[in-house]
Amino acid sequence: MIDLYTYRTSNGRKASIMLEECGLDYALHIVDITRGEQGEPAFRIINPNGRIPAIVDREGAGGPDSAPLVLFESGAILLYLAQKTGLFLPEDEKDRWRAVQWLMSHIKRLIFSMSCKVGCVTLYRNVSHPVSHYRWQEP
Ligand SMILES: N[C@@H](CCC(=O)N[C@@H](CS)C(=O)NCC(=O)O)C(=O)O
Predict the structure, then answer these.
(1) What is the domain range of residue 54?
(2) What Cα–Cα distance (Å) separates residue 59 from each residue in 1, 50, 73?
(3) How many domains is the chain partitioned into structurally?
């Protein structure tokens, strides 16, 4: 079972869409970023950066160490779930790296980072929260 910590933003939805597409069982935990829940100590243990999405795979990543795997960053989550399920990443090494290349390219692309910021601005627009004062200046 995987615990998904997320909210209704573009980055948050990347993880939930991937979990659905992979057909994995997961428990949804809403982290309401409009209320600052991403800054709470319990969530900071999962992601010290205080951002959604994040997952905890209670089964661990396999191998001899079966301790739960805690993972943040949407791109890392997508890659992890693709590897875990054997879905969406081609077997052929060249094709595999091409898929990773496009993933990296899209993650940093304007459309995703801006849609996240637009989404967050919309969410925060009626909320006085320190996030709205500093996050938008980050690259
Ligand atoms: N590079 C990160 C970006 C995560 C991110 O910026 N998440 C936003 C929501 S889309 C967030 O948690 N914002 C709350 C905050 O900045 O405090 C990823 O792709 O996971």
Answers:
(1) 2-137
(2) 7, 23, 19
(3) 1
Task: Give the integer Cα–Cα distance in Å for 48 and 42.
Answer: 10
**C-alpha of residue 33 to centroid of ligand 1, in Å:** 9
- Give the residues surrounding ligand 1 with Cβ less than 6 Å away: 9-12, 33, 38, 50-53, 73-74, 116, 120, 131, 135
Sheet strands (E) in 38-110: 54-57, 69-72
CATH assignment of the domain containing 127: 3.40.30.10
Rounded to an integer, the average pLDDT of 40-46 is: 98
- Quick check: 70 pLDDT over 70? yes
Mean pLDDT of 18-28: 98
Compute, in angstroms, the gap from residue 51 CA to the centroid of ligand 1: 4
pLDDT grade, residue 106 (50/70/90)?
confident
Q: How far is the CA of 59 from the centre of ligand 1 (A)?
A: 25
